[in-house]
Amino acid sequence: MAEMNNDAPRGRHDNKNARCSKKSTRVDMTPMVDLGFLLITFFMLTTTLAQPKTMQLLMPRSDGDSMSLPAQKALTVILGPQGRVAWYEGIGDDITAPPQVNYTSFANHNGIRDVIIRKKEAVYQHTQKNDLMVLIKAVKQARYENVVDIMDEMLINQVDRYAIVDISEREEGYFK
């Protein structure tokens, strides 16, 4: 541990030329090195054990083979600024018959979760399968937190088919 080496003369009378006796000190750093290695090992183990958790996101194939989606199986959700959410049933690609746009939020009562549940039940009654497809679109002012919230809603409501798609200029106008 800590050592004190006393090689200098002990008193005043032993050496007349020495004014003050100097003692040399030597500190054994072995325990400190051991502690350092223990800390390094601890932090290396804790960082490898605490890996960040990510959400699985399936992206469409890039071979250009697009599947046709019936409008009665689709629900389009548009994330807007300040946590606002617009939604309509169908794909909304028919310019001659624009969709009826409704507005909601992420509230627990009458929020987007209730909309997804109602649409999922309607699709199940029509097809006898869980074939609901949710198209998620976001304006540029939408917060990243809202995108994560809508992905969580897909997991909570067990919606197996959903996609994040580009928003059109017409749909961006829903929040102006």
UniProtKB/TrEMBL annotation:
Subcellular location, record wording: Cell membrane
Keywords: Cell membrane, Membrane, Protein transport, Transmembrane, Transmembrane helix, Transport
Chain segments carrying region Disordered: 1-23
A Pfam family the protein falls into: ExbD
Topological type in the membrane: Single-pass membrane protein; Single-pass type II membrane protein
Origin superkingdom: Bacteria
Any Gene Ontology biological process: protein transport
Record bears the keyword Cytoplasm: no
Keyword Transmembrane helix: yes
GO annotation, cellular component aspect: plasma membrane
Molecular functions per Gene Ontology: transmembrane transporter activity
InterPro entries: ExbD
PANTHER family: BIOPOLYMER TRANSPORT PROTEIN EXBD-RELATED (PTHR30558:SF3), EXBD MEMBRANE COMPONENT OF PMF-DRIVEN MACROMOLECULE IMPORT SYSTEM (PTHR30558)
Protein family according to the UniProt entry: Belongs to the ExbD/TolR family.
Name of protein: Biopolymer transporter ExbD
Species this chain originates from: Chitinophaga varians
